[in-house]
Amino acid sequence: MCTDNEEKRNLSLGGHVGFDSLPDQLVSKSVTQGFCFNILCVGETGIGKSTLMNTLFNTMFENEEASHYQNGVYLRPRTYDLQESNVHLKLTIVDTVGFGDQINKEDSYKPIVDYIDTQFENYLQEELKIKRSLFNYHDTRIHICLYFIAPTGHSLKSLDLVTMKKLDSKVNIIPIIAKADTISKSELHKFKIKIMSELVSNGVQIYQFPTDDEAVSEINASMNAHLPFAVVGSVEEVKVGNKTVRARQYPWGVVQVENESHCDFVKLREMLIRVNMEDLREQTHARHYELYRRCKLEEMGFKDTDPDSQPFSLQETYEAKRKEFLGDLQRKEEEMRQMFVNKVKETEAELKEKRERSLHDKFEQLKRMHQEEKRKVEEKRRDLEEEMNAFNRKKVAAETLSLSQPLKKDKDKKK
Ligand code: GTP
Ligand code: MG
C-alpha cells in the first residue's frame, strides 16, 4: 500500500513494458460490462417529464399518463437497455406519480426521500454481505434528479423549495424550467435569476458541473452560469428549411428543441449525458452514498476511532459491541428478575388485601345478619311481652270477676 510519507524513487524504464495500456484495458472492460445510469424525474403531473426523457434519449419509452386524483405520491421505476455504437446503457427512469396533486402537499417529498434511501440501503446490504456480488449488482442508486419547475415566470413554489431542500444531501439535483416555450424571453431571464436567488437564500445545494478537470472546466463553468436550464421537449418532427428537426409547432412559428437560441435542451443533454454522466455517477457514490453509509454505520455503532481518537478496527468495534451487548443483556436480565420479584410481592400483597377485604366483607355481612336476627328476636320478645301483659291483664280481670261472682250468689241465697 502506498502512503504519502513513504519515500518513492523515480526510475526510468529500459524499454516498453506495457502498463501504458492500462487505460485502454479499463475502457474495454467497462464497455464490455456496460454502464448503468438512473434518472429521477420530479415534477407535477403533466409538466412534460416523459416527453423530455423521450427527447433526451431520442426514443419512445413506455408512457402512462398519470391522473390528477392520486391519494399520495408514489415512484415508478422503469429500466431499459439502450445501445449506442457498442456501448450498452442500462437506464432506469423513475417517475414521481401524483406529485403536486394533493391538497395537503406537506408529505409529498417523503416517498421520494424513502425511495432514494432504499436504493442506498440495498447497495449497503450488498456491500456488507459475506458473499458479495457488486460486480454484476444492478445498481439502482439515483445518479441525477431532474427537478421540473413550472414555467410560471413568478417564483418557486414552497413545495419546490421544501422538496429540493430535503433531497439535496441525497442526490445530485439539476433544476430545469419545463415547457420553456410558454414563457417569453425577458420573463425567462428574470425567472432564472429569481429561482437561483431563492435557491441560494434557502440554502438549497444544487449539482455544480465540475470545473477541476481541465478538459471540461471551461464548458462546465459556463454551463453552471446557465442554470436552471429552460427546456422544451418534443418528439414531433417538423420540416424547417430542408432539414427535419424535433420541434413544437405553433400558429405563429416553430420552437426547435435543438436550437440553442430557442431553449437550453442541447445544454442539458450535453451536460447530463455527453460531459458529466461519469461525474454524476461518481458523486453519487463518493458523496451521497458515502454520507448515507457513514450515518447508517454510525447509527449501528461502528466507529473509526475510539474515545481517545485512536484508530479502532472493525474487529475491535465488534468486540466492544459484543461486550456492550452482553452487559446490556445481563442488566436487562437483572432488571427482569427484579421486576419479577416485585410483581410477585405486589401480587401477594394484592391477594392478601383481597382476602382480608373478603373476610372483612363476610364479617360485616354476618354482623348485619346477626343484628337483623337480634332485631327480630327483640321484636318477638316485645310482642310476647305485650301478649303476656295482655294475658295478665285479662287474668287479673278474670280473677276480679270471679271474686265478685260468689258475693252476688251469697246475696241471692240470703234473699
Ligand atoms: P405525467 O407522466 O402524466 O405526470 O405527465 P408528464 O410530466 O410525463 O408530461 P408529458 O410528457 O406526458 O406531457 C404532458 C403534456 O405536455 C403533453 O401534451 C405534451 O405534449 C406537453 N408538453 C411536453 N413537453 C412540453 C414542452 O416543452 N412545451 C409545451 N408547450 N408542452 C409540452
Ligand atoms: Mg409521464
Automatic annotation (TrEMBL):
Region (Disordered): 352-415
Biased segments, Basic and acidic residues type: 352-384
Keyword GTP-binding: yes
Keyword Ribonucleoprotein carried by entry: no
PROSITE patterns reported for this sequence: G_SEPTIN
Residue ranges occupied by any Septin-type G domain in the UniProt entry: 33-299
MF-aspect GO terms: GTP binding
Top-rank taxon, per record: Eukaryota
Alphabetical keyword list: GTP-binding, Nucleotide-binding
PANTHER family: SEPTIN
UniProt family annotation: Belongs to the TRAFAC class TrmE-Era-EngA-EngB-Septin-like GTPase superfamily. Septin GTPase family.
Protein name: Septin
